[in-house]
Specification:
single chain; alpha+beta; three-stranded antiparallel β-sheet; 5 helices; 43% helix
Length: 95
């Protein structure tokens, strides 16, 4: 079964957040950074990877993404801060 990733990208610390899911995290974040994905992330310039979690199956990642998307913003911010307190761009660590 295909593994999956849930991730959060932003434009700056404590900025606009986007929660996504993918089977190839490095490729998807590169697409966001290059502006290849039309929509919300391109419109708002969201390219800083600040959170990610791996799931053994893509179906689990999809369910987790849906759950997080329904959370209050404060909960999402807390999730990022617990994982990455400095809101550093984690994309270089994927390469």
């Amino acid at each position: 079964m295909l593994q999956g990733w849930v991730y959060i990208v932003t434009d700056r610390p404590n900025g606009t957040l986007y929660v996504g899911v993918t089977s190839d995290l490095a490729r998807r974040v590169w697409q966001h950074r290059a502006g290849e994905i039309e929509g919300f992330t391109k419109t708002y310039g969201l390219h800083r990877l600040v959170y990610f979690e791996e799931h053994a199956a893509i179906t689990g990642a999809i369910q987790r993404e849906k759950n997080i998307k329904h959370w209050k913003r404060a909960w999402k911010v807390r999730l990022v801060q617990e994982f990455n307190s400095g809101w550093a761009d984690l994309y270089p660590s994927l390469l």
